[in-house]
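Help wanted!
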Amino acid sequence: DAGVIQSPRHEVTEMGQEVTLRCKPISGHDYLFWYRQTMMRGLELLIYFNNNVPIDDSGMPEDRFSAKMPNASFSTLKIQPSEPRDSAVYFCASSHSGQGTEAFFGQGTRLTVV
Amino acid sequence: AQSVTQPDIHITVSEGASLELRCNYSYGATPYLFWYVQSPGQGLQLLLKYFSGDTLVQGIKGFEAEFKRSQSSFNLRKPSVHWSDAAEYFCAVGARGQGGKLIFGQGTELSVKP
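Answered by r_m:
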């Protein structure tokens, strides 16, 4: 398996624009997680899905953020409108619900909002 | 409150010297514990994990960690550091059956002197 695949790897956008980040989890994994990494706040969980259903979105910072998982092999994280303080590295991770499993992380998307 | 504390923000060791990175956690239930490593511009790679059983766990790249319930600690060790070990190391805690829903520490940046 190719692992968790995120696109794009880098995104530079202007304030006010819509940004969509994409993630393909590992096949067979039933959990998908979106994390954000910043210098100030470190790694924080934004939202996670189980079997394509959002379970906990309490980490989503504002209504400008939304996430979807239309099927088991694809998820998006959208920011509309984007702001400079959204600049961060966004990671997608997936895992299996069986005992003794861990999360596998993608390479991340570095978002810069100017 | 659930939290993970990595007291050392930055550590420098000489190549060939031993290493210990500290991690303390606060978690209401029996925790799953993880150490991840992140090289610059890369995603997070799992070094090792503890779920149950032997409290001394072995990981990749010669790393090991010891779970001490009485001290709420999960310190990472390596007997002899290599220059390629320079990276940022994250300790994380999670719940059983939800291997990717993690609370991360702030990370410890490791520098290796020749």
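OP: Thanks! One thing I noticed: The mean pLDDT of chain B is 93.
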